[in-house]
Amino acid sequence: NRGALFKGDLAVLNTDGLTVYSREAGTTGSKLFTDSFRMEDPRLVATTENIFAYDLGGNEVMMFNSYSRLARLSMDYPIYGFSASNSGHFAVITAEKNYRSAIYVYDSYARQIYKRLLSNTYIDQIALSPDGKHFLALGHEAKGGYLRTLLQVYSVKEELPVYTASFEGELPLMASYLTDGSFAILTGSALRFYDGQSENPVETLSLEGAGLANCRFENGCVIITATGGGLSDGTEITVYDSTGKAIKSVPFGSVPADIR
Fold this sequence. Notes:
Layout: E1 2-6, E2 9-14, E3 17-21, E4 31-36, E5 42-46, E6 51-55, E7 60-64, E8 69-74, E9 81-84, E10 90-96, E11 99-106, E12 112-118, E13 122-128, E14 134-143, E15 146-155, E16 163-168, E17 172-177, E18 183-187, E19 190-194, E20 203-206, E21 212-218, E22 221-227, E23 235-240, E24 246-252
Antiparallel strand pairs: 1-2, 2-3, 3-4, 5-6, 6-7, 7-8, 9-10, 10-11, 11-12, 13-14, 14-15, 15-16, 17-18, 18-19, 19-20, 21-22, 22-23, 23-24
């Protein structure tokens, strides 16, 4: 089961469907809504506006509130990634015939407002800005036997990227907007912070030899869990703000199972 809070209610998703439970005083645990459907690898995303369920590697995306299903979309090719913003917009990574990647962006009514096809790049991660007007795509290409990560930042009103950057020999891992249009991207080699205005990062933190165990984007911050070089060297959790400044570091004797 996967769970997420939505406007005080609890949404629970599994392979057989979605159930929303009330958390209001006196009605705790009562069902507000149930929708039955089948997904092989269900994923759940809750924003301030909607609940989204999608089937990673499957074809369907669904949009809900606490009481009903609002939209159901079926992709022609498998879904490889998804992002949703508090504006109500959402984006899907999939593919199309003769293209390695396809990016679709939808408005709060599930109407398609943007489409981008890429013939040479595999898009691995996508992130919508909080206002839904921009998105970043993190992907990879193999040229001459060498891997490179490609960062592209788009406006939903323009076909071509606003700007791009590439990183030779690095593997793309994660990407997320933080606050005020700033964002961060994680590769196997570095964590980079951007202000959203320039293709040059405002801070780059090398992860070479860091023993990266986990990364989370939470409340405008990036939380990195890194292990020492040996089995008994312990673990350190570091919290970075949107500019890449370390604001908190906590040592642990072992790798935490989860961080919230």
